[in-house]
Amino acid sequence: MNDAMPQFDRSVEDLGNIVELGHVNVTVPDQRLATIFYISGVGLTRDPYLMTGTDNMWANVGRAQFHLPSRDASMPGQVVRGTTGLVLPDLQALLGRLAKVKPMLKGTKFSYRETNNAVEVTCPWGNRIRCHAPDPAQFGPFCLAMPYVEFDVPKGVLPGIVRFYQQILGGMASLEKDAIGEYACAIVGDGNKLVFRETSKKQPDYDGHHVQISLVDFSGPHKKLLERGLITEESDQHQYRFVDIVDPDTNKPLFRIEHEVRSMRHPMYARPLVNRNPEITNRVYAPEHQAARFAISPV
């Protein structure tokens, strides 16, 4: 080996079988309030091409999305049992937008607070969103992204969850530890993770919300899930769904969260998404500044 040749940790580039966290889906009973919160407040971008009516909204955040289909107005909105993490370009601008929409969201569960390193926001129906500033060391070269979805899970399930993502889905997963404590982490694409943290707090019943992932080996996990009776929907040629995360050793259910599983041949895999700069308005418009990049400039 040439001693002068550069040395790299090639394992940093590995993703495993799960190559995309595409969206988080929660139903909402009021599209107006959803628009005020996700678009005007958080500063995301409504997808201009798909779901442009009043019965659904797709909100772009970098290369990922929130899907917000309507449900009966008499029913509560779905709530992720955990926290969705976002990276946004400017947290001070975010605080300004949230202050402006606060009066319009009066009487809902909307709230926000600034912490030492983030802005913690609650949507009108109770979904928790933690907004971070860009940080290449923590989130990679992204200034607009959905780097993680963190779930609150019962005690004693973390090792089984790791085995599930490793052995059933063929993904990269491990037990990790930080200042808060131990957690299970599954890699779901470039810069994206599903995080599972134990809690002793009683959790609400699962209400049907889901996350979407994409796989390289699409049929292998399907076969393993089917053998265990876990497939809940055969959507089409490019997609299937399951709900229960189980311990592969015992098939014991550990946690419920529907996964919408897509192949890399799905027509919408890695579809380019439009992202806007929410600070550009008609009063401060400047040509070519209305679009936002999702990655940090390399120079």
Overall structural domain count: 1
Q: Roughly how many Å is the radius of gyration?
A: 20 Å
Main sheet properties: 8 strands, mixed
Structural class call reads alpha+beta
CATH class: Alpha Beta
The CATH homologous superfamily name equals 2,3-Dihydroxybiphenyl 1,2-Dioxygenase, domain 1
Instruction: Identify the quaternary structure here.
Output: single chain
Main sheet: which strands, in order across? 2-3-4-1-13-16-15-14
- DSSP summary, beta strand count: 16
| Overall pLDDT score | 95
Helix content: 10-25%
End-to-end gap: 32 Å
Structural shape: globular
User: What is the percentage of strand-forming residues?
Assistant: 25-35%
- Low-confidence parts: none
**CATH topology description:** 2,3-Dihydroxybiphenyl 1,2-Dioxygenase, domain 1
* SSE topology string: EHEEEEHEEEHEHEEEEHEEE
CATH architecture: Roll
- What is the count of DSSP helices, taking H or I runs of 4+ residues? 5
Describe the structure.
The protein has one domain (15-263): 2,3-Dihydroxybiphenyl 1,2-Dioxygenase, domain 1 (Roll), CATH 3.10.180.10. Strands 2-3-4-1-13-16-15-14 form an 8-stranded mixed β-sheet. Strands 6-7-8-5-9-12-11-10 form an 8-stranded mixed β-sheet, covered by helices on one side. It contains 5 helices and 16 strands. It is globular, with a radius of gyration of 20 Å. Helix 1 (31-41) packs antiparallel against helix 2. With 299 residues, it is of the alpha+beta class.
